[in-house]
Protein 1
Amino acid sequence: MNAALAAAVAFAAMLGLIALRMPVGLAMLVTGSVGYIHLAGLPAFLNYMKSTPYYLFSNYTLSVIPLFILMGALAERSGLSTALFRAAAGLVGHRRGGMAMAVIGACTLFGAICGSSVATTATFSRAALPELRRYRYQDALATGTVAVGGTLGILVPPSVILVVYAITTEQNIAKLFQAAFIPGLLAALFYCIVIAVVVRRNPQAGPAHAAVPMRERWRALAAIWPALIIAVVVVGGIYGGVFTPTEGAAVGAIAMLVTALLQRALDWAGLRQALVQTADTSAMIFAILLGAEVFDSFLGLSQLPARAAEMVAEAGLPPYGVIALLLVFYILLGAVMDELAMILLTLPVFFPIVAALDLGMFPDEVAIWFGILVLIVVGIGLTAPPIGLNVFVVSSIARDVPIVTTYRGVLPFLLADIIRLALVVLFPGLSLVVVRLLN
Amino acid sequence: MTQAGEGEREAVVTGRLAAWTRPLAIAGGFLMLAAALMVVVSVVQRWLTNFSVPGDIELVQIATAISVFAFLPLCQAQRGNIMVDTFTNWMPRRLRDAIDALWDLVYAVATGVIAWRLAVGAWETVRSHTVSMQLGLPIGWVIAACAIMAALLAFVAVGTAVQMLRGRA
């Protein structure tokens, strides 16, 4: 059996095992191991396994992941999400649909101190949903907004997904964070426009109410300064090259811990909970990273990615057609599959294909631009039916709202996502201009 | 894909497996916090004096590896690993549990192999007196600690398989 065929068979076997409930990381580990042994022999594999798990987990770049997750877990318990939401609600909440827009605004800022969409969704489900209900917002708009707002956790840098992309494709994390800046703000803007359109067509969805007094607005705004400072220091420090992403994450995590302790929002039990959550989420990601590492090594041996890139290049397809096909594939796959596993599975094959396309840009710019496109489709996958992780998170907290209702609320936002994706595809400058300015 | 809802997962992690996977994970979390604190000191010191804490990168690397291995048993005990249940929801509960138990056993074998290979790697590293570049820390012993936690992980996976086969009460 030739090597590329072996890789194709292994891919099929892995997808079969995943469909049969095998955990994604384990499926990659098992099929990758069998493939590795088939191509390189058992002694080579045993030798490979002697050091790989340790050296993978002790990779300095990867250490940014548990640190960002820790920062998010502490932020979730620091009371900052409530403060951000109150401040935004004080500004625009009294307008029609304003409370929903306040969720988006607060999520955008929270996204700058949290790199995880699940953490963002969970914290705003608790902080904002009860308020939205108190002001008689309809369920679909309320839960839909929180589910979509949660994606801003990754769309606005820092972003765990971009870190994983950077590591898989050997790109610069700081540049990817820079490139995500404008598309992230664009997402927030588009979501607010969607809310405005929804409440215009159905004023009952998000009724207006009396504004809070000026004095209280100022007080609410004054309460968010810790969040602002942390966001500016962490994101600004990474953008400006003052520190590495790992250092930024460490500074952010400690700053968040200190803030939470000073505000007496975090007790001993809360700290333990934050650490357990960090442990669970980090372990989940690293288990998949290990499986992906072994599977990728096998793919590398098989030379399937290089062959696939050659084939696509020789087929003479229009470059933008290839990009469009890949993105459609990602949207479909993301609807039924975990997004992190999806990019780890596909990037080793897709990235060489994209890198070989002649798009009239510098190769490293293509890599960064494609990273932002992947980030956007991941965001879509997090909320799109039937399997949208953010929607599940909202449902697990707002148990009385049927999941179908939340999906109905998400739909208009998905339309905005597709438009934003098309804009970033057609105008690569939207993602690249900040990178060019800062470097 | 799904992970079980938060409430459901809390229920799974009670019992004997919870008794020590949780403290181990929390210890790993504190190690990560300590590493973060060291990085902050390093960044501030670099800002003031142009010199970082010596070996800061090495310390972060070692802390991350140990922490992640300390996190993994908890994740398995909580059945937190990402899986796709879209295509198997029609199956009877007992069958699904049996499949999950089977994969837990496969996971136990896989992590058992990892523990074995890491132990061999640790032994060789200790014998060759390989130390870290800047601080001269004995990396072999760090790998050995990871090997032990990988073995614990294999043990937990057997435990969750047994839980699954007995039926989650």
Note: The CA atoms of residues 20 and 74 of chain B lie 9 Å apart.
Protein 2
Amino acid sequence: MKHKLELQEAEVEAKSVIEKFNIASLPICPFSIAKEHGIVTEPKDSDKPGVSGFFIKIGDVFGIKYATHIKNEGFIHFTVAHELGHYFLPGHFEYLFRGRDGIHESRSGFISEDFYEKQADYFAKSLLMPEELFLAALREAGEGFVAVKSLATKAL
Amino acid sequence: MSAIFSERLRIARDLKGFSQTDLAQKTNLKPSAISHFENNRRSPSFNNLKQLADALGVTVDYLLGRAEEPTTVNLELELLFRNFKEMSGPDREFLAKMAKELAEKSKEQKEKKS
């Protein structure tokens, strides 16, 4: 796998955030984590599709703006967790400010080849579905679609 | 990696009279992490930058070399809109509103540090 070490790094950073919050069970709320770090989160007041999330830095203040045109809590949580990845992952400031100062945007439905984006996606996955907690839930979830529904309920 | 960050971090720590261990304790980072940052062997995260800036009484922008004075922030909002054309009209409007709010908050934080 390309960038295997960097993806592991994303998992380690997500785990570190979870441990610092003393989170011992699902669900994990990215909004609470953002709030604890003074990161402002705001929904886009628009139903139009397009940019799914922004990570913004102005001075020493950081913000996340997320789209709500897809009415799915999981999608919204993943968007916010992805943007948190840009805040918690080492070296992302160099990427975010490369050539375009102060703002980063992500577009839904587009699988980015950029490794920073993949690393932020991996961070989001690891933050919202940490292996240890998710596997424990998986073992209790049963089988088939009932299991999928059960896990979705537990993770949100 | 950012050479200016390494240099600024070391200068700010020296001015504060902190050892690497002192700074590590104040930021909940490992002393080895501080050493890696100062020797340009590891890049920080924004979270690390915020922790370091708060402990040293400087701004993130100073540590990143985006502001010349230790307590100065970079509020040049026009640079936020380089991708303006890719956004929808409402996106631009709401982003501008949020940018304004964050700039106000950043000014308040700066006043506390000054």
Note: Residues 2-129 of chain A form one domain.
